[in-house]
Amino acid sequence: MPFNRELLKGSISLLILKLLSERDMYGYEIIQEAARRSENVFELKEGTIYPALHQLHKQGYLRAEWRTGDSGKQRKYYGLTSTGRTKARRGQEDWRRFTQTVNAILAKDEL
Amino acid sequence: MTTRFALVRRVGALARLPDRRRREEVERELSDHLEDLIEEARRRGYDETMAGRMAAIRFGDPGRIAEDFNSVYAFERLSRRTAAGAVSLSVIVAVCVATGLFSWAPGHALLPTLAFASAASARLLQGIPVPFLWFAGTAGPIAMAALAFRPLLPEQGPPPWLLWIGLTLSCATLRGVVNLFSIWPQVHLKAYRGRAS
């Protein structure tokens, strides 16, 4: 079942930062990797991912460079800057705290 | 192939990116992405036409993608447009002020040009936030310009002190105009964010 678009939009930056904290990737690869890890639940759209990548790049969290990939084609690879790494780490901590809190409230509701 | 270029061009055209280099880069990136989508569909056994169609469907609405790009670069676009407007207006104001001040001297066609060139150089020096340099910045270029253009100037030209006053006034006007234009985008952006929220 697809998620609420707004819910996904709010967490897109965190997902991108997390995926890029492991290795440099280009847009298509990020979408594929997110789909694979979420067992095709997260089908990120191009209209979401590319503007988000550009926004993070503009904010200084990502660096970008055109590079020849394994397929021999030139692709625009994105990677984290040191600020981006810190942002990714903090983002994950915030997300964990947030979900724990929400879960705690929802659990009380269920009782 | 045609569909791919048409889609990408449409995004590029609608996104209103701040400059041509950025637009070309976005188009290239999206074009590569579409190529990957087409290749993926081909691997799944679709023919060329179907692969192109499937890629276009997965790519989504170009208008929506452009809209998202548009909001990412909104501030940068606005700043550039404002800066360009400020420069144009400054040039017009400088020429008007300089021409108005020295037009009384008949046959001095060189003077407005000279005054404008000096005012423009002085405006650059005014970037340094020290009050003394504001005046030094107007006196320096006029002295240099007077030395450089002395052979071309008529004998009975306006005295240097009058040139200096004229240039100071030009510079003050320019500074006011530039300040006004540097404040305006921030006010506009705040209003825009207020409306968006």
Question: Secondary-structure map with pairings?
Answer:
The complex is a heterodimer of chains A (111) and B (197).
Chain A: H1 5-20, H2 27-37, H3 46-58, E1 62-68, E2 74-80, H4 82-110
Antiparallel strand pairs in A: 1-2
Helix pairs in contact in A: 1-3, 2-3
Chain B: H1 2-14, H2 20-43, H3 48-59, H4 62-72, H5 74-102, H6 110-125, H7 131-149, H8 160-196
Helix pairs in contact in B: 1-2, 1-4, 2-3, 5-6, 5-8, 6-7, 6-8, 7-8
Task: Write up what this structure looks like.
The complex is a heterodimer of chains A (111) and B (197). Chain A is α+β, with helices and mostly antiparallel strands and 111 residues long. Chain A contains four helices and two strands. The longest helix of chain A has 29 residues, at 82-110. Chain B is an all-alpha fold and 197 residues long. Chain B contains eight helices and no strands.
Q: List SSEs of chain A in N-to-C order.
A: HHHEEH
Rg on CA atoms of chain A, Å: 16 Å
Mean pLDDT of chain B: 69
Low-confidence stretches of chain A: none
Helix content of chain B: over 70%
Termini gap of chain B: 40 Å
Task: Summarize this structure briefly.
The complex is a heterodimer of chains A (111) and B (197). Chain A has 111 residues and is of the alpha+beta class.
Features of this protein?
heterodimer, A: 111 residues, two-stranded antiparallel sheet, 2 strands, 13% strand, B: 197 residues, 8 helices, rod-shaped
